[in-house]
Specification:
By secondary structure, this protein is α/β, with parallel strands linked by helices. The two termini are 28 Å apart.
Length: 187
């Protein structure tokens, strides 16, 4: 059984470790902890790992955030992965920093990366793990905030949050979306 785990972000050094690139950072930490390495392939950096008889394809799209759907659609089709085995990791302004919400589908909540995925897949019914980045910014400064870096205090907390996200990813693949939602959305 195969799963596609997609971390959303933007390519380029100027975007590294910004709030908007939290999907990339989570996958980087997950891959490092699993001793696997990303390779540059079509539409992104890809790594593959085995987890108790399951294959997880990790994808960091190289299409920029707002065109992520092209990469997601390509890798779902190439690897013949069913939609219910797709999990997208994404930043969320509506959640306080460090809070997670695993959802089975629904609105893109104004997130252009999710919006493009929904457009390319012609559905909003795919799992997404939302990572709260908070909304501590002055009016009109949303873009600067999202493309900005975490505070030093937040940066100190990130490694444990990446570990938590790894637990959610594993539960999604091993136990299913319903279990993972019931177990991890309560914490």
């Amino acid at each position: 059984m195969k799963y596609l785990i997609v971390g959303l972000g933007n390519i380029g050094a100027e975007y590294e470790h910004t709030r908007h690139n939290i999907g990339f950072d989570i996958l980087d930490a997950f891959a490092k902890a699993s001793n696997i390495v990303f390779e540059t392939k079509r539409y992104g950096d890809v790594a593959e790992m085995k987890l108790k008889g399951r294959t997880l394809i990790l994808l960091k799209p190289s299409t920029y955030m707002n065109l992520s759907g092209n990469a997601v659609r390509y890798w779902l089709q190439k690897e013949n992965i069913p939609l219910e085995n797709l999990l997208v990791l994404v930043d969320d302004l509506a959640l306080p920093f460090g809070k997670f919400r695993l959802r089975a589908g629904g609105s893109n909540a104004g997130h252009n990366g999710l919006g493009n995925i929904q457009e390319m897949l012609n559905t909003d019914q795919y799992a997404r793990l939302r990572f709260g980045i908070g909304q501590d910014f002055p009016r009109g400064m949303q873009v600067e905030y999202v493309l900005g870096r975490f505070t030093p205090e937040q940066q100190a907390e990130l490694p444990k949050l990446w570990d938590y996200a790894a637990e959610v990813i594993k539960a999604f693949a091993l136990c299913g979306l319903s279990f993972a939602m019931n177990h991890y959305n309560k914490k």
